[in-house]
Amino acid sequence: MEQYILIFRHQDGSKIASPEQMQVWMKQTMDWIGGIAAQNKFVQGNGLPFDEARVVGHQGVVTNGPFGDIKETIGGYVIVRAASIDEAVEFAKGSPVLQGEGNTVEVRRVASRDGVH
Questions:
Q1: Nearest CA among 74, 65, 114, 64 for reference residue 97
Q2: How many Å apart are CA 100 and CA 14, to the nearest integer?
Q3: Under the phi-then-psi rule, with left for phi > 0, alpha for psi from -120 to 50, and beta for the rest, what region is 95?
Q4: What is the pLDDT of residues 73-107, one digit of tens each?
Q5: What would you report as the CA-atom Rg of the chain, rounded to the nearest whole angstrom?
Q6: Closest Cα partner for 5 from 106, 115, 97, 113?
Q7: pTM for this one?
Q8: What CATH number matches the domain at 2-53+65-109, 3.20.20.330, 3.30.70.1060, 3.20.20.70, 3.40.50.360?
Q9: Would you kindly state where each structural domain of the chain is located, as residue ranges?
């Protein structure tokens, strides 16, 4: 069984949800992750807040950010175990992140430590 990362991309990071909306979204997310965990296929996951962030570029140039006013932001990730990318995509389709217009979930296989997949 392979591991796949589901990367949550938000189309407009400047839109901030109300505390009530955040509470509903967090419950939906915990329920979604719980469903994956019940199948013993959840590995790990985290949200990625925008504060205390830096971008390191070519030749070590460091800038503050990323910021919510850019076109697209990464809001977090989940790593799952799946028999195929198609199974991982099915997990991604259930993500509450997709309730936001323009939001996406990128699904990619995680390279194994020994280079074999």
A1: 74
A2: 13
A3: beta
A4: 888 999 999 999 999 999 999 999 998 888 999 99
A5: 16
A6: 106
A7: 0.83
A8: 3.30.70.1060
A9: 2-53+65-109
